[in-house]
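Researcher: Next sequence.
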Amino acid sequence: MKNKDYLLNITELKSILNQQTKENLVGLLTECYKNNEKIKELISAKYAGNDAVKQILEDYKIKIQNVFFPDRLSGKLMLSEARKAIHNFKKLCNDEELILDLMLFYVETGVEATNTYGDLYEEFYSSIEKMYWSVIEAINKYKDSRIFSVLSKRLKAVVDDTGGIGWGFHDNLANMYHEIKWLEIGDIEADTDELGKIKEYISGIFAKRADIPELKDKPINEIVSGVINADEVFLKKMDNQHRSYSNDEEIDFIGKKTNFDYQLIELILWQRYCYEMENDYWEYPEGECENCRGGKLYIKEVPGKDYADKIICKKCGAEFIRE
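Model: Next structure:
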Protein backbone atom coordinates (compact mmCIF):
# COMPACT_ATOMS: atom_id res chain seq x y z
CA MET A 1 0.00 0.00 0.00
CA LYS A 2 1.18 3.50 -0.80
CA ASN A 3 0.73 6.67 1.27
CA LYS A 4 -0.69 4.61 4.16
CA ASP A 5 -3.95 3.94 2.31
CA TYR A 6 -4.96 1.60 5.11
CA LEU A 7 -5.61 4.63 7.37
CA LEU A 8 -8.97 6.38 7.47
CA ASN A 9 -9.29 9.45 5.31
CA ILE A 10 -11.05 12.58 6.58
CA THR A 11 -14.39 11.72 4.99
CA GLU A 12 -14.38 8.25 6.50
CA LEU A 13 -13.36 9.63 9.89
CA LYS A 14 -16.17 12.19 9.93
CA SER A 15 -18.71 9.54 9.01
CA ILE A 16 -17.60 7.29 11.87
CA LEU A 17 -17.45 10.11 14.42
CA ASN A 18 -20.94 11.28 13.51
CA GLN A 19 -22.22 7.88 14.56
CA GLN A 20 -20.59 7.93 18.01
CA THR A 21 -22.18 8.93 21.29
CA LYS A 22 -20.97 11.95 23.23
CA GLU A 23 -19.42 9.65 25.85
CA ASN A 24 -17.49 7.74 23.18
CA LEU A 25 -16.17 10.96 21.63
CA VAL A 26 -15.10 12.35 25.00
CA GLY A 27 -13.35 9.06 25.74
CA LEU A 28 -11.59 9.06 22.40
CA LEU A 29 -10.39 12.65 22.76
CA THR A 30 -9.21 12.00 26.30
CA GLU A 31 -7.24 8.96 25.14
CA CYS A 32 -5.67 10.94 22.31
CA TYR A 33 -4.87 13.79 24.72
CA LYS A 34 -3.05 11.46 27.10
CA ASN A 35 -1.01 9.71 24.42
CA ASN A 36 -0.06 12.41 21.92
CA GLU A 37 1.89 15.55 22.84
CA LYS A 38 0.85 17.45 19.70
CA ILE A 39 -2.84 16.82 20.39
CA LYS A 40 -2.32 17.91 23.98
CA GLU A 41 -0.81 21.20 22.76
CA LEU A 42 -3.49 21.69 20.12
CA ILE A 43 -6.40 21.23 22.53
CA SER A 44 -4.73 23.34 25.22
CA ALA A 45 -4.03 26.14 22.73
CA LYS A 46 -7.64 26.09 21.54
CA TYR A 47 -9.46 25.84 24.87
CA ALA A 48 -7.14 26.72 27.77
CA GLY A 49 -6.86 30.46 27.06
CA ASN A 50 -4.11 32.97 26.22
CA ASP A 51 -1.94 32.10 29.21
CA ALA A 52 -1.69 28.52 28.00
CA VAL A 53 -0.78 29.64 24.48
CA LYS A 54 1.95 31.91 25.82
CA GLN A 55 3.36 29.06 27.89
CA ILE A 56 3.34 26.82 24.82
CA LEU A 57 5.23 29.61 23.03
CA GLU A 58 7.88 29.53 25.74
CA ASP A 59 8.15 25.75 25.35
CA TYR A 60 8.79 26.19 21.62
CA LYS A 61 11.42 28.83 22.35
CA ILE A 62 13.19 26.26 24.49
CA LYS A 63 13.11 23.82 21.55
CA ILE A 64 14.73 26.45 19.33
CA GLN A 65 17.25 27.36 22.02
CA ASN A 66 18.28 23.71 22.32
CA VAL A 67 18.92 23.52 18.56
CA PHE A 68 21.29 26.48 18.58
CA PHE A 69 22.89 25.52 21.89
CA PRO A 70 22.92 21.70 22.08
CA ASP A 71 24.55 19.86 24.97
CA ARG A 72 27.42 19.01 22.66
CA LEU A 73 28.19 20.87 19.44
CA SER A 74 29.42 18.60 16.65
CA GLY A 75 29.21 19.62 13.01
CA LYS A 76 26.40 21.74 11.65
CA LEU A 77 23.45 22.79 13.75
CA MET A 78 20.12 21.10 13.04
CA LEU A 79 18.40 24.29 11.92
CA SER A 80 15.65 22.33 10.20
CA GLU A 81 14.48 21.22 13.66
CA ALA A 82 14.25 24.83 14.82
CA ARG A 83 12.31 25.80 11.71
CA LYS A 84 10.07 22.77 12.24
CA ALA A 85 9.26 24.10 15.72
CA ILE A 86 8.04 27.35 14.16
CA HIS A 87 6.02 25.44 11.59
CA ASN A 88 4.36 23.35 14.29
CA PHE A 89 3.59 26.39 16.45
CA LYS A 90 1.82 28.01 13.50
CA LYS A 91 -0.52 25.01 13.44
CA LEU A 92 -1.42 25.65 17.08
CA CYS A 93 -1.78 29.41 17.08
CA ASN A 94 -3.26 31.99 14.72
CA ASP A 95 -2.03 34.98 16.73
CA GLU A 96 0.30 36.70 14.27
CA GLU A 97 2.10 38.62 16.99
CA LEU A 98 3.05 35.45 18.87
CA ILE A 99 4.13 33.74 15.65
CA LEU A 100 6.38 36.69 14.76
CA ASP A 101 7.71 36.65 18.32
CA LEU A 102 8.85 33.05 17.80
CA MET A 103 10.27 33.73 14.34
CA LEU A 104 12.25 36.68 15.63
CA PHE A 105 13.44 34.55 18.55
CA TYR A 106 14.88 32.14 15.97
CA VAL A 107 16.84 35.04 14.46
CA GLU A 108 17.95 36.40 17.84
CA THR A 109 19.14 32.98 19.00
CA GLY A 110 20.98 32.48 15.72
CA VAL A 111 22.79 35.79 16.21
CA GLU A 112 23.62 34.81 19.79
CA ALA A 113 24.99 31.50 18.51
CA THR A 114 27.36 33.00 15.96
CA ASN A 115 28.55 35.55 18.51
CA THR A 116 29.21 32.64 20.89
CA TYR A 117 30.77 30.10 18.53
CA GLY A 118 32.52 32.49 16.15
CA ASP A 119 32.33 32.48 12.36
CA LEU A 120 29.96 29.77 11.12
CA TYR A 121 28.96 28.59 7.63
CA GLU A 122 27.11 30.27 4.78
CA GLU A 123 23.96 28.15 5.01
CA PHE A 124 23.59 29.16 8.65
CA TYR A 125 23.62 32.88 7.86
CA SER A 126 21.31 32.38 4.90
CA SER A 127 18.75 30.65 7.10
CA ILE A 128 18.81 33.45 9.69
CA GLU A 129 18.50 36.10 6.97
CA LYS A 130 15.52 34.35 5.35
CA MET A 131 13.70 34.15 8.69
CA TYR A 132 14.44 37.82 9.43
CA TRP A 133 13.13 38.82 6.02
CA SER A 134 9.96 36.80 6.62
CA VAL A 135 9.40 38.81 9.80
CA ILE A 136 9.96 42.11 7.94
CA GLU A 137 7.54 41.12 5.18
CA ALA A 138 4.86 40.17 7.70
CA ILE A 139 5.26 43.48 9.56
CA ASN A 140 4.99 45.44 6.33
CA LYS A 141 1.65 43.77 5.55
CA TYR A 142 0.03 45.33 8.60
CA LYS A 143 -2.20 48.38 8.05
CA ASP A 144 -0.88 50.11 11.16
CA SER A 145 2.42 50.28 13.00
CA ARG A 146 1.33 48.54 16.21
CA ILE A 147 3.10 45.25 15.51
CA PHE A 148 6.30 47.11 14.63
CA SER A 149 6.13 49.13 17.84
CA VAL A 150 5.95 45.85 19.79
CA LEU A 151 9.01 44.35 18.09
CA SER A 152 10.98 47.46 17.08
CA LYS A 153 13.74 47.30 19.71
CA ARG A 154 14.36 43.61 19.05
CA LEU A 155 14.43 44.11 15.28
CA LYS A 156 17.05 46.86 15.63
CA ALA A 157 19.08 44.94 18.23
CA VAL A 158 19.51 42.05 15.78
CA VAL A 159 21.25 44.42 13.38
CA ASP A 160 23.35 46.08 16.08
CA ASP A 161 24.49 42.72 17.48
CA THR A 162 25.86 41.51 14.14
CA GLY A 163 28.44 44.20 13.49
CA GLY A 164 31.67 42.69 12.20
CA ILE A 165 30.23 39.25 11.39
CA GLY A 166 31.35 37.87 8.02
CA TRP A 167 29.51 36.59 4.94
CA GLY A 168 27.87 40.01 4.51
CA PHE A 169 25.56 38.98 7.35
CA HIS A 170 25.38 42.36 9.08
CA ASP A 171 24.94 44.34 5.87
CA ASN A 172 22.17 42.06 4.63
CA LEU A 173 20.25 42.34 7.89
CA ALA A 174 20.75 46.12 7.94
CA ASN A 175 19.36 46.40 4.41
CA MET A 176 16.33 44.32 5.39
CA TYR A 177 15.75 46.41 8.51
CA HIS A 178 15.61 49.58 6.45
CA GLU A 179 12.89 48.04 4.31
CA ILE A 180 10.43 48.33 7.23
CA LYS A 181 7.86 50.86 6.10
CA TRP A 182 7.05 51.95 9.66
CA LEU A 183 10.55 53.26 10.45
CA GLU A 184 10.71 56.69 12.04
CA ILE A 185 13.64 58.97 12.81
CA GLY A 186 14.08 57.39 16.25
CA ASP A 187 14.57 53.95 14.66
CA ILE A 188 17.65 54.87 12.63
CA GLU A 189 21.10 56.25 13.36
CA ALA A 190 20.93 59.99 12.75
CA ASP A 191 22.96 63.05 13.68
CA THR A 192 20.33 64.73 15.83
CA ASP A 193 22.48 67.83 16.43
CA GLU A 194 22.88 68.38 12.69
CA LEU A 195 19.19 67.76 12.03
CA GLY A 196 18.32 70.26 14.74
CA LYS A 197 20.43 72.92 13.02
CA ILE A 198 18.81 72.15 9.66
CA LYS A 199 15.29 72.41 11.09
CA GLU A 200 16.14 75.67 12.89
CA TYR A 201 17.62 77.15 9.71
CA ILE A 202 14.59 76.26 7.56
CA SER A 203 12.04 77.36 10.16
CA GLY A 204 13.89 80.66 10.49
CA ILE A 205 13.76 81.24 6.73
CA PHE A 206 10.05 80.44 6.53
CA ALA A 207 9.22 82.65 9.52
CA LYS A 208 10.44 85.64 7.49
CA ARG A 209 8.42 84.78 4.38
CA ALA A 210 4.80 85.68 3.80
CA ASP A 211 4.57 84.22 0.30
CA ILE A 212 3.95 80.60 1.25
CA PRO A 213 0.18 80.11 1.70
CA GLU A 214 0.63 76.47 2.74
CA LEU A 215 2.33 77.69 5.93
CA LYS A 216 -0.12 80.44 6.87
CA ASP A 217 -1.42 79.99 10.41
CA LYS A 218 0.25 76.57 10.69
CA PRO A 219 2.94 75.27 13.09
CA ILE A 220 6.01 75.86 10.93
CA ASN A 221 8.42 74.07 13.27
CA GLU A 222 6.28 70.91 13.35
CA ILE A 223 5.88 70.83 9.57
CA VAL A 224 9.58 71.34 8.93
CA SER A 225 10.52 68.74 11.55
CA GLY A 226 8.11 66.18 10.06
CA VAL A 227 9.48 66.60 6.54
CA ILE A 228 13.15 66.56 7.57
CA ASN A 229 12.68 63.50 9.79
CA ALA A 230 10.92 61.61 6.99
CA ASP A 231 13.60 62.68 4.55
CA GLU A 232 16.34 61.40 6.84
CA VAL A 233 14.62 57.99 7.00
CA PHE A 234 14.37 57.94 3.19
CA LEU A 235 18.03 58.88 2.74
CA LYS A 236 19.08 56.18 5.20
CA LYS A 237 17.07 53.62 3.25
CA MET A 238 18.71 54.66 -0.02
CA ASP A 239 22.16 54.67 1.55
CA ASN A 240 21.72 51.13 2.84
CA GLN A 241 20.47 49.97 -0.54
CA HIS A 242 23.40 51.71 -2.27
CA ARG A 243 21.03 53.10 -4.88
CA SER A 244 20.37 56.41 -6.57
CA TYR A 245 16.91 57.97 -6.51
CA SER A 246 14.88 60.72 -8.09
CA ASN A 247 13.42 63.83 -6.46
CA ASP A 248 9.95 62.43 -7.16
CA GLU A 249 10.75 59.23 -5.25
CA GLU A 250 12.06 61.24 -2.31
CA ILE A 251 9.05 63.57 -2.21
CA ASP A 252 6.58 60.72 -2.70
CA PHE A 253 8.05 58.86 0.28
CA ILE A 254 7.88 61.96 2.49
CA GLY A 255 4.33 62.70 1.29
CA LYS A 256 3.14 59.25 2.35
CA LYS A 257 4.78 59.73 5.75
CA THR A 258 3.51 63.24 6.44
CA ASN A 259 0.45 63.80 4.20
CA PHE A 260 1.89 67.18 3.18
CA ASP A 261 1.50 68.29 -0.43
CA TYR A 262 4.20 67.99 -3.08
CA GLN A 263 4.99 71.69 -3.45
CA LEU A 264 5.49 72.24 0.27
CA ILE A 265 7.77 69.23 0.63
CA GLU A 266 9.76 70.28 -2.42
CA LEU A 267 10.26 73.77 -0.97
CA ILE A 268 11.42 72.43 2.40
CA LEU A 269 13.89 70.09 0.70
CA TRP A 270 15.16 73.02 -1.34
CA GLN A 271 15.80 74.93 1.88
CA ARG A 272 17.68 71.91 3.24
CA TYR A 273 19.83 72.10 0.14
CA CYS A 274 20.32 75.83 0.80
CA TYR A 275 21.51 75.05 4.33
CA GLU A 276 24.04 72.60 2.89
CA MET A 277 25.21 75.13 0.30
CA GLU A 278 25.61 77.82 2.96
CA ASN A 279 27.80 75.45 4.97
CA ASP A 280 29.99 74.55 2.00
CA TYR A 281 28.77 70.98 1.64
CA TRP A 282 28.67 71.21 -2.14
CA GLU A 283 32.12 71.73 -3.63
CA TYR A 284 31.92 72.10 -7.42
CA PRO A 285 33.93 69.26 -8.95
CA GLU A 286 34.89 70.93 -12.24
CA GLY A 287 38.35 72.29 -11.43
CA GLU A 288 39.55 75.51 -9.79
CA CYS A 289 38.71 79.20 -10.13
CA GLU A 290 39.70 80.66 -13.51
CA ASN A 291 39.98 84.13 -11.97
CA CYS A 292 42.39 83.62 -9.06
CA ARG A 293 43.81 80.33 -10.33
CA GLY A 294 43.54 78.31 -7.19
CA GLY A 295 40.39 79.01 -5.23
CA LYS A 296 37.97 76.14 -4.70
CA LEU A 297 34.56 76.40 -6.34
CA TYR A 298 31.31 75.82 -4.47
CA ILE A 299 27.67 75.61 -5.43
CA LYS A 300 25.76 78.41 -3.71
CA GLU A 301 22.18 79.62 -3.45
CA VAL A 302 21.06 82.56 -5.58
CA PRO A 303 19.69 84.92 -2.90
CA GLY A 304 15.98 85.63 -3.12
CA LYS A 305 15.27 82.92 -5.69
CA ASP A 306 13.89 79.45 -5.04
CA TYR A 307 15.45 76.53 -6.92
CA ALA A 308 18.33 78.62 -8.33
CA ASP A 309 22.02 78.12 -7.62
CA LYS A 310 25.35 79.40 -8.90
CA ILE A 311 29.08 78.62 -8.81
CA ILE A 312 31.27 80.86 -6.67
CA CYS A 313 34.95 80.89 -5.76
CA LYS A 314 35.41 80.71 -2.03
CA LYS A 315 38.73 82.56 -2.25
CA CYS A 316 38.06 85.57 -4.52
CA GLY A 317 34.27 85.61 -4.77
CA ALA A 318 34.15 85.28 -8.56
CA GLU A 319 30.93 83.78 -9.93
CA PHE A 320 30.63 81.37 -12.83
CA ILE A 321 27.82 79.95 -14.91
CA ARG A 322 27.01 76.41 -13.92
CA GLU A 323 27.48 74.02 -16.85
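Model: The CA atoms of residues 203 and 219 lie 10 Å apart. The chain has four domains: 1-35, 49-173, 190-279, 280-323.
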